[in-house]
Amino acid sequence: MTAHLLQGKKVLITAGPTREAIDPVRYISNHSSGKMGYAIAEKVLELGAEVVLISGPVNIQLQHPRIRIIKVNAASEMYLACCKVFEEIDIAVFAAAVADYRPAKVSEQKIKKDEASFTIKMVKNVDIAYEFGKVKTDNQISVGFALETNDEIAHAKNKLQRKNFDMVILNSMNDANATFGYDTNKITTINKNLVQKPFSLKQKTEVAKDIVREISSLLMRQFEYEEIRAFE
Ligand code: CTP
Q1: Atom from ligand 1 closest to the CA of residue 75
Q2: Which domains can be identified in the chain, with CATH numbers?
Q3: Which of 2, 8, 30, 43 could form a disulfide with 212 if both were Cys (CB 3.0 to 4.6 A apart)?
């Protein structure tokens, strides 16, 4: 039996939500369950890859001799953990729902409800996928997600180019039983040549298989490209 293309490849996967602290007992977060990222991790492990899974807080357990799980809370922690492995990885899959903003100031004490209303000033978080896109080499593959509510294809194509992804996986909030919290998902992949491939609504474990198959074909193309260059 021949080895799968993913055999021995180092795959970075970000998954789950991030939590941005307001004070010692409160935070701002989102509905991400982490199911999609963890399902992709399981599938690439099955095919022989090594995985670094950098995960926000989720209710999923995953153990495997070839997985290293780094648990984080804030986007800044997720970014620092990613930076440590950016250079050594072959493939990055950015499945985390990273908070785009965080409170400008984290109160050291629990905030008391003295005022009738209060405002939290938010500042922008680092965009992890964008930062990787800037330093990515030709031998590295970057895959991102786009969750959209409107003009889905146009927004996804824009993300693909802006973040230098090799492929973007589009989820639409308009598809029933897809995205946050559901065990099912419906995706459309868009590659660098802007070729779109729609998939039907499936269990997230099945969607993970489709995504990993698409990543494998990106690897195949990279492999063929290297072969051609070797003969030039
Ligand atoms: N992403 C990331 N770091 C961030 C924000 C997003 O790594 N701070 C990654 C996500 O994991 C996903 C992709 O970028 O793979 C797109 O994320 P999304 O939140 O949909 O896009 P944004 O660029 O944040 O754009 P907007 O929220 O304005 O749609």
Answers
A1: 8
A2: 2-104+118-230 (3.40.50.10300)
A3: 43
CA of 126 to the centre of ligand 1 (A): 10
Q: Which residues are catalytic?
A: 30
Torsion 191-6-142-219 (CA) sign: negative
Would you say the CB of residue 147 lies under 6 angstroms from ligand 1? yes
- Spatial contact of 89 and 10, defined as CB atoms under 8 Å apart: yes
pLDDT tens sequence across 201-221 = 999 899 999 999 999 999 988
Distance CA 220, CA 224 (A): 6
Give the pairing of strands 101-103 and 122-124: antiparallel
Spatial distance between the Cα atoms of 200 and 187, rounded to a whole number of angstroms: 7
**Nearest residue CA, atom 23 of ligand 1?**
159
Of ligand 1's atoms, which has the minimum distance to the CA of residue 146?
A: 20
Q: Whole-model pTM?
A: 0.94
Structure tokens at 219: 């690897």
Residue 52 Cβ inside 6 Å of ligand 1? The answer reads no
Predicted confidence (pLDDT) per residue in 63-121, tens digit: 999 999 999 999 999 999 999 999 999 999 999 999 999 999 999 999 999 999 989 99
Region for 164 from its dihedrals, namely left if φ exceeds 0, alpha if ψ lies in -120 to 50, beta otherwise? left
